């Protein structure tokens, strides 16, 4: 089995590599920040080699009461949360506009297997929809609007949907794994617990090797 893991930045890639060690089934690529860079980088990677599974992995912002800093989230669904139109009545999704879909399903069998293994290893793990946004949420109001609009929203990050669309286009299964560095809400980048989130990403990656 050949597995492609896409992160946004090098620090996330290094954390994944520390977890998977020298397992040659995995390629790990830092494809850039945001859904567009992620989609382009993933598409390019999928054209260069035959893969069986694609994983979007990295740190993310956790929704209040759903996650803790340093916990791991395995996506049940990958959702482009800002793909649509703002109207006088509120946000209209791309589905409501009739132009396509903002949701990609994950491989449920693999994701359940991974969640069980992470729990067995004693790690703090949650499951739920992982949102992709091109803009990091920076206010309480936007955070609250997102969790109202997308019930169960667990994490927000910036790449999953781009990676997932590229995987879908290549007819490959997709997973998304995020570890929580900060709460979704008022921006305070100085308070992001990046070290803790990268350590959790390393641990989650070491379990991935056992599961796949
Ligand atoms: O400064 C560093 O050392 C550093 C190390 C690793 C990663 C970073 C990033 O800034 C990664 C950006 C990446 O993180 C995701 N992310 C994290 N929190 C959020 C959030 O609250 N909302 C949306 N995205 C978030 C995102 O996927 C970015 O690509 C820095």
UniProtKB/TrEMBL annotation:
GO terms for biological process: L-methionine salvage from S-adenosylmethionine; menaquinone biosynthetic process; nucleoside metabolic process. Pfam families: PNP_UDP_1 (PF01048). It comes from the Bacteria. InterPro entries: FL_hydrolase_MqnB, Nucleoside_phosphorylase_d, Nucleoside_phosphorylase_sf. Keywords: Glycosidase, Hydrolase, Menaquinone biosynthesis. The keyword Hydrolase applies. Residues 28-206 form the Nucleoside phosphorylase domain. It catalyses: futalosine + H2O = dehypoxanthine futalosine + hypoxanthine. GO terms for cellular component: cytosol. Its EC number is 3.2.2.26. One of its GO terms (molecular function) is adenosylhomocysteine nucleosidase activity. Signal peptide: none annotated. The keyword Hydrolase applies. Pathway: Quinol/quinone metabolism; menaquinone biosynthesis. It is an enzyme of class 3 (hydrolase). PANTHER family: 5'-METHYLTHIOADENOSINE/S-ADENOSYLHOMOCYSTEINE NUCLEOSIDASE (PTHR46832), FUTALOSINE HYDROLASE (PTHR46832:SF2). Belongs to the PNP/UDP phosphorylase family. Futalosine hydrolase subfamily. This is Futalosine hydrolase.
């Amino acid at each position: 089995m050949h597995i492609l893991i896409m992160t946004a930045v090098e620090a996330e890639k290094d954390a994944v590599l520390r977890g998977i060690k020298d397992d040659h089934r995995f390629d790990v690529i830092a494809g850039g920040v945001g859904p567009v860079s992620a989609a382009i980088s993933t598409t390019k990677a999928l054209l260069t080699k035959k893969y069986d599974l694609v994983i979007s992995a990295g740190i993310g912002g956790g929704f209040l009461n759903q996650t803790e800093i340093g916990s791991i989230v395995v996506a049940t669904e990958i959702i482009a949360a800002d793909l649509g139109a703002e109207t006088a009545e509120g946000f209209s999704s791309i589905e409501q506009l009739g132009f396509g879909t903002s949701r990609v399903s994950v491989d449920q069998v693999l994701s359940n297997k991974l969640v069980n293994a992470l729990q067995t290893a004693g790690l703090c793990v949650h499951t739920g929809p992982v949102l992709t946004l091109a803009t990091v949420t920076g206010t309480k109001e936007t955070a609250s609007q997102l969790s109202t609009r997308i019930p169960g929203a667990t994490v927000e990050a910036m790449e999953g949907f781009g990676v997932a669309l590229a995987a879908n286009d290549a007819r490959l299964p997709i997973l998304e794994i995020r570890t929580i560095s900060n709460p979704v809400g008022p921006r305070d980048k100085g308070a992001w617990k990046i070290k803790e989130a990268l350590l959790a990403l390393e641990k989650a990656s070491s379990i991935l090797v056992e599961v796949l």
